[in-house]
Amino acid sequence: MFCTLVCCMDGRFIHIVNKYIRSNYRYTFVDTITDAGAVNKIVSDEDYLKSIEDKVVLISVNKHKSDHIFVAGHSDCAGCPTDDETQKGYIRQAAEKMHKDLPHEAVTGLFVYENGEIEVLADYDISDN
To answer: In the 8-state DSSP scheme, what is residue 33?
Structure first.
């Protein structure tokens, strides 16, 4: 019923990703943790990753029984002002890092284009180690 989304705070994209997840996966509710340029921070700052994992695990996983984490970034990100290909690389790295740290969770990396199209960049199942 619950999954977890870690993504940029940009209001142009949050609703698009939430709708995509609810429409394409079996989840009714999407616990959403936002920050400007979140995927870049996951990749570059161990303390940041630890701080969001505490929220993910203590609240979303333990209380809401979330079993899937989505990590999303997007075009034209003010919090991570880089080209789309670099941003996609950060998303792939962030998804891999989240899966290694939380192997009991499925992890999917998503990229949202300015036109609202979504590309799946990484997809780790619970059994993928």
So the answer is: E
Question: What are the start-end ranges of the H helices in the chain?
Answer: 11-24, 38-44, 46-55, 84-101
Collect all residues with Cβ–Cβ distance below 8 Å to 39 and sequence separation of at least 6.
6, 7, 8, 71, 72, 73, 80, 87, 90, 91, 93, 94
Is pTM beyond 0.85? Reply is yes
pLDDT in tens, 43-72: 888 788 788 877 777 788 888 999 999 999
How many angstroms separate the CA atoms of 68 and 61, rounded? 9
The structure tokens 């029984």 sit at 65
From CA 125, how far away is CA 103, in angstroms rounded? 9
Tokens 């003010």, residue located = 78
Q: What are phi and psi of 91, to 5 degrees?
A: -65, -45
3-state secondary structure of 16: helix
Structure tokens at 109: 């990396």
DSSP conformational letter for 62: T
| All domains in the chain, ordered by first residue | 2-124 (3.40.1050.10)
